[in-house]
Design goal:
Helices cover 30% and strands 23% of the residues. With 303 residues, the chain is of the alpha/beta class. Among the domains are: 65 residues, Ubiquitin-like (UB roll); 94 residues, no CATH class. A hairpin with a 4-residue loop joins strand 2 and strand 3.
């Protein structure tokens, strides 16, 4: 039952758990301050929106770009004079640039009060590319993320990308890291049953770890600056193409340090700079080197 005594007990001074000296707000005052706060917030938001629309782009600049011209990047970014300064963000601009120029790794936007917008661009330094199921993919050497896909590989080759031939179990999706997974197949003898490839380990990424072991070991050697590409689809017949005309066969990934030293020694003895196509085999204890003028090399090794 509501009485003046119960009202005083609930709202009176010193009668709550706050202790002496506590002065509670009357209900109408609490509502008033709540409405006042909301009103102020709305007014401030409206003012910020007006100021944002009034803050226009005057000049757009690009910093950090080496592989692409500033004009090409500005055109792809779609930012022009008289645009609102708050009408674009870093994520959207980055996606626009990467869609046209996949070597763009990241974009930071700096806005100045005088209307100057600066796009601070970072580019991929080292990249790989591959062809899998008729599509060509560009891959970052830094984090192994797939950066782009195309129907032809000439553009990626023009970036100075090194070719890597992956096993068919590779999974390549733009925006994600390279992964490996097993492919199911239907045996001819029993088409109604679905079998899977026999593997030595349960995890595909473990099974195909030899790919990155080989790539990293070779790229850390003295051969790294001369590698046109590598074919790693068969773990027992791994090979690379040196300077576009020498195929070097390694067999598997065992004893790689010895094989690399052997390849370096043979190159110093046999490579006289004439660029006659040749095949070297360092998979055995003693390496071999044969000049083969009509040597058939994969398409990715062609200039």
């Amino acid at each position: 039952m509501f009485t003046s005594r119960s009202f005083a007990k609930k709202f009176g001074q010193g009668s709550t758990s706050q202790g002496r000296g506590y002065t509670p707000l009357w209900p109408w005052k609490a509502c008033f301050y709540t409405i006042l706060g909301l009103g102020i917030a709305l007014v401030v938001s409206a003012l910020l929106l007006i100021l944002a629309n009034a803050w226009k782009v005057d000049t757009v600049k690009v910093d950090g770009a080496e592989k692409f011209s500033a004009d090409a990047l500005l055109y792809a970014a779609g930012i022009s004079a008289d645009d609102s300064m708050m009408s674009f963000g870093e994520r959207g601009v980055t996606e626009k640039l990467q869609a046209v120029h996949p070597l763009i790794r990241d974009v930071r936007i700096k806005r100045s009060l005088n209307g100057t917008v600066t796009l601070q661009v970072s580019e991929e330094e080292n990249v790989y590319y591959t062809c899998l199921r008729s599509n060509f993919y560009l891959i970052s050497a830094e984090d192994l993320k797939v950066m782009g896909v195309a129907s032809e590989g000439d553009l990626f080759k023009s970036y100075g990308a090194m070719y890597i031939g992956f096993p068919e179990e590779a999974r390549l999706t733009v925006g994600k890291k390279v992964e490996f997974a097993y492919l199911p197949y239907e045996p001819v003898s029993a088409p109604e049953e679905v079998a899977t490839y026999e593997v030595e380990t349960e995890e595909a990424d473990e099974e195909f770890a030899y790919v990155w072991d080989f790539v990293n070991t070779v790229c850390d050697s003295s051969l790294s600056g001369h590698i046109t590409g590598m074919e790693l689809s068969d773990r027992y017949d791994l090979y690379l193409v040196y300077d576009g005309y020498i195929r070097i066969r390694f067999g598997n990934t065992q004893d790689m340090d010895r094989k690399l030293r052997l390849a370096e020694d043979i190159l110093q003895k046999e490579n006289d700079g004439e660029k006659i196509p040749a095949e070297m085999d360092v998979s055995a204890t003693k390496g071999t080197y044969r000049e083969i003028p009509d040597l058939s090399l994969p398409a990715w090794a062609m200039p």
